[in-house]
Amino acid sequence: MAAKINKIVLAYSGGLDTSVILKWLQEIYKADVVAFIADIGQGEETAPAVAKAKATGACNVYCEDLREEFVRDFVFPAMRANALYEGSYLLGTSVARPLIAKAQIDVLRKEQADAVAHGATGKGNDQVRFELTYLALEPSVTIIAPWRDPRWDLTSRTKMIEYARKHGIDVPVTVKKPYSNDRNLLHLSFEGGILEDPWAEPPADMFQLTVDPAEAPDAPTCIEVEFEEGMPVAVDGERLSPAALLARLNDVAGANGVGRVDMVENRFVGMKSRGVYETPGGTVLYAAHRAVESITMDREVMLQRDLLSPKIAQLIYNGFWYSPEMKALMAFVDASQQDVTGTARLKLYKGNCTVVGRKAPKSLYDEKISTFEEDQGAYQQADAGAFIRLNALRLRVRNKAGLL
Fold first, then answer.
1. pLDDT for the residue numbered 44
2. How far apart are CA 46 and CA 314, in angstroms?
3. Helices (H), 184-275
4. 119 closest CA partner among 197, 166, 80, 171
């Protein structure tokens, strides 16, 4: 017989799912529930979430400010790897889950609790991300996933809203407008409800971090981002902490309508899912970082890193942040970034983010070699003929053999 569960630490956001789950855990397990809230840049959502958790009956509430750690140790490393899932998604939700789960395990230990719980559904990626981290850091931990529990009968948004109202729990969604979102310093995501039709355009009033590009200022905004060893350190010459830097870029880019993505992605569990994302500051960072890399990173090193980027993005998306393969791949990324020090200048205009300048103290760009004017012998153009003939040798041989 399984040991009695007396105390559960729930990853809590204050949204519909986790608000209902907190009460459901109390009813089903007759256990104390500790609500754990990770502040990773939700804005004004954390204070109401604390109040709601207490009102719903949590025996204790932890609200930890993880914003600096989130950006420094998770967002920036993913950016240095140029990690984009399926070419578009900047992994705003994916990269946050291992940090939340790690901090949740810390609370489990502090509270000497018996189990951890989360509000991820049995259809999504988050269940995998949370639980792979739990098990990597605490292999024998007991995990409660209500959406996979046979006793869970709140199998629709409508039923959950009715349950919440029955128990006096305030919820921020309605049946009419039921899309859910996830917000942190890197992004704001939307899914479900009216967005489940991939042909339907997202409603204009849904977006919160970015203005409609058509309504953005008629004059472009120029901004400079400085990097040291691949890590962003300053905006327009002002050195900022990681969280403050990303927040600054969010404000500037969002005001110019930069950072909207509407995509259908492949979830780890096998289905396709439509997600709409606002990632204003992250969009600028990725473009700026790539620009500095273009003049500081060796061609072959860049090629190898770029070959690894899709795999790193997949590992993050699928929840393998704390895996040996992730550690090994990121070691290469770290090595590749040693010389990525410099500044990129970008122009933000009506949803577009365009690189218009880049400079670096140890730039590999040599104007004397690259120029179309007189190069004063820096490059011997006659050498190119032999170079081309040697590279064409195998092609010529294949032709002689009748293979081309």
1. 74
2. 30
3. 242-255
4. 171
- pLDDT higher than 80, residue 263: yes
Domain containing residue 89: CATH number: 3.40.50.620
pLDDT at 67: 98
CA angle 298, 332, 73 (to 5 degrees): 115
Name the residue with tokens 């009956």. 57
Assess whether pLDDT exceeds 70 at residue 386. yes
Contacts of residue 300, Cβ cutoff 8 Å, sequence gap at least 6: none
Q: What is the pTM of this model?
A: 0.95
Mean pLDDT of 162-183: 76
Residue 330 within a domain: yes
- Are 142 and 240 part of one and the same domain? no
Query: What pLDDT, in 10s, does the model give residues 219-241?
Result: 999 999 999 999 999 999 999 99
Name 213's Cβ contacts closer than 8 Å, sequence gap at least 6: 256, 257, 260, 350, 351, 352
Could you tell me if residue 224 is inside a domain?
A: yes
DSSP 89: B
Smallest Cα–Cα separation from 24: which of 166, 158, 125, 182?
166
State pLDDT tens for residues 70-129: 999 999 999 999 999 999 999 999 999 999 999 999 999 999 999 999 999 999 999 999
What's the confidence (pLDDT) of residue 64?
A: 97
Residue 172 sits in the same domain as residue 207? no
pLDDT at 177: 56
Distance CA(24)–CA(195), nearest Å, equals 28
> Residues with Cβ < 8 Å from 9, sequence gap 6 or more?
33, 34, 36, 104, 107, 108, 111, 113, 115, 116, 117
Residue 370 lies in a domain: no
Domain match, 119 and 244 both: no
Q: How many helices (H) and strands (E) does the chain have?
A: 13, 14
Cβ neighbours of residue 42 under 8 Å, at least 6 residues apart?
A: 13, 49, 183, 184
Q: What are the catalytic residues?
A: 17, 97, 126, 180
In terms of residues, how long is the chain? 404
Answer whether residue 404 is part of any domain. no
For residue 276, report the phi and psi dihedrals to the nearest 5 degrees. Answer: -115, 130
Q: How far apart are CA 158 and CA 56, in angstroms?
A: 20
CA 156 to CA 138: how far, in whole Å?
Answer: 32
